[in-house]
């Protein structure tokens, strides 16, 4: 799916830290829920309002199917990059699981990201991805892979 120049977009962040711009499409009622469910890969999404006019949409079903006692499963489900970005502006009770989509928001409705928001989010994705990679490298080294 390509993004048309000057069309409203969101930023999809996958569990591996990769990010891509996605077109914001709405249904006949002006709701982006269908597009978000498709991008995230679930039937039910959850909204987390962040500071700075950002909305974070995530997989509401993730916890239903996740065994919280299975440390490996929890680790595999966490989206560390989205969690790091969201925790900068919102108190999170848990990490972000699965694919996350950032949109702009005015406190009532979600909208496409502004150029400034998109630039800042892409910068934060790059920084967070680097931090996660360094942490994994350090963990491998400390864990005996020297």
UniProtKB/TrEMBL annotation:
Keywords: Plasmid. This is DUF3846 domain-containing protein. It comes from Mycobacterium adipatum. The lineage of its organism: Bacteria, Bacillati, Actinomycetota, Actinomycetes, Mycobacteriales.
